[in-house]
Design brief:
Family (chains A, B): Belongs to the methylenetetrahydrofolate reductase family.
CATH class of the largest domain in chain A: Alpha Beta
Oligomer: homodimer
Pfam family, one (chains A, B): MTHFR
Largest sheet of chain A: 8 strands, parallel, barrel
Organism (chains A, B): Nelumbo nucifera (Sacred lotus)
CATH topology of the largest domain in chain A: TIM Barrel
Number of domains of chain A: 2
Distance between the termini of chain A: 52 Å
Number of helices of chain A: 19
Protein name (chains A, B): Methylenetetrahydrofolate reductase
CATH architecture of the largest domain in chain A: Alpha-Beta Barrel
Structural class of chain A: alpha/beta
GO molecular function (chains A, B): FAD binding; methylenetetrahydrofolate reductase (NADH) activity; methylenetetrahydrofolate reductase [NAD(P)H] activity
Amino acid sequence: MKVIEKIRDSTLDGRVVFSFEFFPPKTEDGVDNLFERMDRMVSHNPSFCDITWGAGGSTADLTLEIANKMQNIVCVESMMHLTCTNMPVEKINHALDTIKSNGIQNVLALRGDPPHGQDKFVQIQGGFACALDLVKHIREKYGDYFGITVAGYPEAHPDVISENGVATLEAYQNDLAYLKRKVDTGADLIITQLFYDTDIFLKFVNDCRQIGIKCPIVPGIMPINNYKGFLRMTGFCKTKIPSEITAALEPIKDNDEAVRSYGIHLGTEMCKKILAHGINTLHLYTLNMEKSALAILKNLGLIDDNKISRSLPWRRPTNIHRVKEDVRPIFWANRPKSYISRTIGWEQYPQGRWGDSCNASYGALTDYQFMRPRSRDKKLQEEWGVPLRSIEDIHERFMNYCLGKLKSNPWSELDGLQPETKIINEQLGNINLKGFLTINSQPAVNGEKSDSPVVGWGGPGGYVYQKAYLEFFCSRRKLETLIEKCSNFPSLTYMAVNKDTQWMSNVGASDVNAVTWGVFPAKEIIQPTVVDATSFFVWKDEAFEIWSRVWASLYPEGDPSRKLLEEVQSGHFLVSLVDNDYVNGDLFAVFSDI
Amino acid sequence: MKVIEKIRDSTLDGRVVFSFEFFPPKTEDGVDNLFERMDRMVSHNPSFCDITWGAGGSTADLTLEIANKMQNIVCVESMMHLTCTNMPVEKINHALDTIKSNGIQNVLALRGDPPHGQDKFVQIQGGFACALDLVKHIREKYGDYFGITVAGYPEAHPDVISENGVATLEAYQNDLAYLKRKVDTGADLIITQLFYDTDIFLKFVNDCRQIGIKCPIVPGIMPINNYKGFLRMTGFCKTKIPSEITAALEPIKDNDEAVRSYGIHLGTEMCKKILAHGINTLHLYTLNMEKSALAILKNLGLIDDNKISRSLPWRRPTNIHRVKEDVRPIFWANRPKSYISRTIGWEQYPQGRWGDSCNASYGALTDYQFMRPRSRDKKLQEEWGVPLRSIEDIHERFMNYCLGKLKSNPWSELDGLQPETKIINEQLGNINLKGFLTINSQPAVNGEKSDSPVVGWGGPGGYVYQKAYLEFFCSRRKLETLIEKCSNFPSLTYMAVNKDTQWMSNVGASDVNAVTWGVFPAKEIIQPTVVDATSFFVWKDEAFEIWSRVWASLYPEGDPSRKLLEEVQSGHFLVSLVDNDYVNGDLFAVFSDI
């Protein structure tokens, strides 16, 4: 979706929206950390996130890669910066073709700073001289596909700011006129350069309106994080610093904590003033940091850790080809990035269900890389790489995870349990100790309000439902006992399969069981999570592979623990169990006397 | 669906299935009555119904028409008889092409009796000599499209039964061998000629199996309805009558009631014996009569008036092109035949929703004929054609209908209220008296068991839901009051439109509101009834037209009552009102102080 459309929708609804800007980190660990941070920040529903294009195109490949993963794996509407510096038109087109094919619809078109060590911007041969040329080119070559954002300079472009720190009136007006040309040529949104004098921004908006610029103008807010950085950045951008800010910072400049607190306070006050003037969009220059930006939004009441609202039980994709995806197998519930990554070639949603397309282009598990940041591997090594003397030691690992004593799990991408799992974690602990090693579950939900904090999704006014679900590994003997007991619990349906694809089930091969659904005013029933045999068969390969690829590989070759895990992997069944009676059922009752 | 597939499914599930045979009545009233009767009988879920082909093709056109309406309007899986008598191959093909294009998949292929006044069957030029030729032709020309049934003669074909009432062993064996050839050539099901000696039927089945006939053999049961008819039929078919039957009938032969009772008793006993021998199919020759056939099935425990099971809230279509239809607008809930009739050109279900195809081939109201039998017109005249002095008289009609004091309603095809309407009929009566003239409604249902007698559907093990719904005509003033009050009831959504298409609503034009849905084990959520603006717009023409075309037309030209109705028609709005809170809502609360 184009960011401009999201902003228009929010304006109609009277909602305030905000966005976050990031830059490409210099190290692999930095990239890992950025994605983890971004993932957390995206749970607060920014309208979009953008990623910068390093000076002189220095980060081109990394920026393209990050933009792709932001859009498709983190699932946030993404905007990529693109500059003319050192970019012949072929490179420009390559970048645009790449993001287009990755389902990204938003570009921030810039002239760009000169590359490091160079003083002034120089147009290269076969390249563009300015952002205006770039906007024109994008519209000419790609029509309406892209939403195009351009930069607005409330104090005029730094190039025309003289040594006394201000632009002449003429220079300022020329700059405004140039901005209008960028908009007239096809840009649909303006984000401003950072500023610390809110009145200058408000005057700038007013001046833009005076000369007929009608598109939204989003203020770019950069929270002050530390004193030196602040000076460097404002110096580079020739930003005016109001004297009261200088006065407030001077006495605390060596106390990083105090500077950050002041930065949050200042950012909050600036935003309050902007919002009070009827501007409903805020863009935060995060400098890849999380705390200050979130603190400001919390102060403004725009986010609430206890009220994370979800439009679906899983994070809705933003890729233009995939935005209609409306159903997912439950099996990947704790591995959403694995799911998205492996189905990334599926462009036809909601038709792209497993039954129709599992043979087409399902990615291999080896493709699935960046979603296992090194920090998680370390945690796994520490919590799961312990010596295993017997099967009971394995049972205990699973139990401890369910009881919250471990934070990591080889079968989960998440940090710790999902909030709803905590509703049933004691019961889960019990059955794990009995040798039913759970890797996925959900409690039954019978018509909770759709804005209830733990199980709600889809916004207010509706009711949500879940069938109780358990997925676990267990031995053949335990499985047979369980199946026997199932005959006394007619509302239970199960599917079980081992590594060699031996199959036991009491449902049809083509049955699709909706296990999460919601009823909303004036809407059809939404049923985003299902249990079905076709995708279970695909999932089981991944589920079994994790025993060796993720867990056993924590031990050296030949280690007895490793051998034990491989025995479990080849001897156990993977079982999917649904209690279809979400009103009166008790999924754990069938385990009670095993 | 082919009948053989339905029988195979039922055999797998161990269910007993039954079917009804009808013949084309001689008069138009007779046809009206047959359809009303068939409609009632079909509510007991026969696996199929068949319609005979008059001797010598005398009823060809009528049989084709009835078969079409059985399949498409009554919505029962239909089988058409087709005989060779007087039928050149072009006529055969025309008949088969016709039923194929009408979505019928089942044919009973017969040689046929000689036409009236002719002694023996004579092959006409360009025609077929026997059922075997016909079966061969159907398979050659239509491949696997049709399920083909043939007749089996437990006592051999009447033509080879000599004057002493029995066929020679050789004739019987030839007849069996001929039956095997019919099956080998492509018939997939056998229905037997009527019999009254069950042992003969059981021996016949056994003899068939001995020579390798493997398809199901369905016993044809003809309940004795009156003595003379019984003698005529058994004489014509040369059916053996066991002496105990003769002995039982002789003393009561002039008492029709006693004969019928005996017929029910005898039919029940015959069927019991057949079922006890592991045969799970029964075919009833109804002679277009209802009572005896249903009484036998009731005695056998195969039907229960208090437990009519519905697979959906509306009767599922059987037309091969339409069998996947899975959703309907609620507006035609009391006029299902009108709905089917007007959408009969829509072959693509479930894609054939209003939003996609309302412009394509929606039939005019004038096309809608046979669904208004003369008897209903008479009832309407009597109950609704009364002098109307004021608008209050109109309110009173509507109220009385809701209170069950009237049986007919211009806006309904049904006899009286739907069972679920009785849950809310007092409340409906109240608002009708206030001038909210209801023509459609349903109570809220919050997770009733899916086999509950009044609101259940879809079989056992699930839960069904409904949002409370009201549809009514009211004046503009009343509508405005109502809309004002709606602001205090945020769970209400409404659409209102008048004859001139003035529109008021608090929902989006493309919103589709599921108002009936069900949750079943190992299934996706089924949502068969919706409220949406697109189809409401189409429906409103029919709803407004009924004021004049059905109600006002009960009065002579110039009658003051007629004028009053026309005023209401042009001044009132049609309003559709949903309470989206099916858990805690009260749809009638908004009316309480109007």
